[in-house]
Design brief:
Layout lengths: L1 H21 L8 E2 L30 E3 L4 E12 L10 E11 L5 E2 L4 E6 L4 E3 L16 E2 L4 E9 L6 E7 L7 E6 L2
Antiparallel strand pairs: 1-2, 2-3, 3-4, 4-9, 5-8, 6-7, 6-10, 10-11
Length: about 180
């Protein structure tokens, strides 16, 4: 009888713990859908240094996928220097492509896309480079229809003596920011 009562109490305790575990809210975030582990190349720089537990930074080669099936990825990351007519002019920067794929059933207003950068171990803000001579004109001012993708070229200030770059992309107002991070050679 004692064994049966103890066993019953243990089953109730385990069931209560299991029910509590399922009650935890799960935050909506960008998730990695594809991770490519390849050796660094000109188009694929090295991955970021070791990250802390809970760090949500994606590698430059990852893809952020949102709950509404919008995907964002980076490619062709390389160094350059802005022209003398750019804003800011004659500035070393990292140049990269951002591809947005609309897998949702609604149009995406890309003029609301936000791109911000940070560089170095100290975390300095890197100005976006606008240079029509180099094809850097900021976010597209169009809508992206369902089932289509668009690639735009961006540049962010990155001094010659710095290698660490963080690129933050929010594809549309109201979406979470995807944070890509790594080293640019």
């Amino acid at each position: 009888m004692r064994t049966t009562a103890a066993l019953g109490a243990m089953i109730i305790a385990v069931a209560a713990l299991a029910a509590c575990a399922d009650d935890k809210p799960k935050p909506a975030t960008a998730t990695v859908t594809e991770t490519v582990t390849a050796a660094p190349t000109r188009d694929r720089p090295a991955s970021p240094p070791d990250t802390e537990p809970g760090d949500s930074a994606l590698a430059f080669t990852d893809t952020a996928t949102y709950e509404n099936n919008i995907e964002v990825s980076l490619s062709s990351i390389r160094r350059a220097v802005s022209s003398d007519t750019a804003s800011p002019s004659n500035t070393p920067y990292a140049r990269f492509n951002i591809k947005v794929t609309n897998g949702s059933s609604e149009n995406v207003n890309l003029s609301l896309m936000s791109v911000q950068c940070q560089y170095g171990q100290e975390g300095r803000e890197g100005d976006e480079i606008f240079d029509s001579a180099r094809g850097l004109e900021g976010a597209p001012s169009t809508h992206l229809r369902p089932g289509r993708s668009l690639t735009a070229t961006f540049g962010c200030e990155l001094p010659r003596n710095e290698t660490y770059l963080q690129v933050e992309v929010r594809p549309n107002f109201g979406e979470r920011t995807a944070i890509f991070a790594g080293n640019v050679q």
